Amino acid sequence: MRLDLTGTSVLVTGGALGMGRLYAERALREGAAHVDLWDRDAGRLASTAAELAASAPGAHVSTTLVDMGDVSAVVAAAETHLAERGAPHVVINNAGVVRGALFWEHDVDRDVVGTMAINAVGPMVLVRTLLPAMLADGADRRILNVASAAATLANPRMSVYAASKWALLGWSDSLRLELERTGNGHVRVTTFCPSYISTGMFEGAKSPLLTPLMTPEVAVDRAWRAMLAGRAQRLTPWTVGLGKTVRGLLPLAAWDVVADRVFKVYGSMDDFRGRASAPAGRD
Prior knowledge:
With about 280 residues, the chain is of the alpha/beta class. Helix content is about 45%, strand content about 15%.
């Protein structure tokens, strides 16, 4: 059953810009009473919240300054949210970073530990803190975890990013199954796995064969509709699912040839630059 957002509360991580802002706009447009934007960029967070509040006078837009890579900060912010606003009806784990480099070029603390913390550990900690309250009253709720096509296929110059998104996908789908099998299906989990999106986060990346660069608006619309419907996964565009299937059918050596020479996946990050205003691709 599609979730009716009228009068609900929505929490969006990475909500100060890009797709996070679009998710917040969509929530307000569909009748959410309260949207809480989480981000670590204080300036953008404040300006985005003010603009969103002006666009939806009847709703309340709040902000939480937090780094999703800081476990203790995430726990504290989630506990504050529960104390002040109760359990959210929708949680959108959108915040993420990408480091496009050869593995041995990654800085251990910033790139390896930092990427895993923000992209995988942070969402787990947030949901773990909120989930008991989300389960308690039996209300229909949603969790949208934004993973990536990189969670389904290996790719050069994306080793740590892919690892973080594989982790997110594995956790997210396992959580979905646990909720369904324990009679807690009123909280539904959707995992979103898009290919490259033109937010600036993947500036310089080249789209593989038959995989056009999506606009943020198209990506958010597809994720949003899947989330409200309670779908388990949304892989987009269709070539993401095709690649996953072909990869599963072919021997690894044969897949490497197809992925590299036919789909052009393996060279897609060769010219990666990332967002100019946020080095290393923070979105």
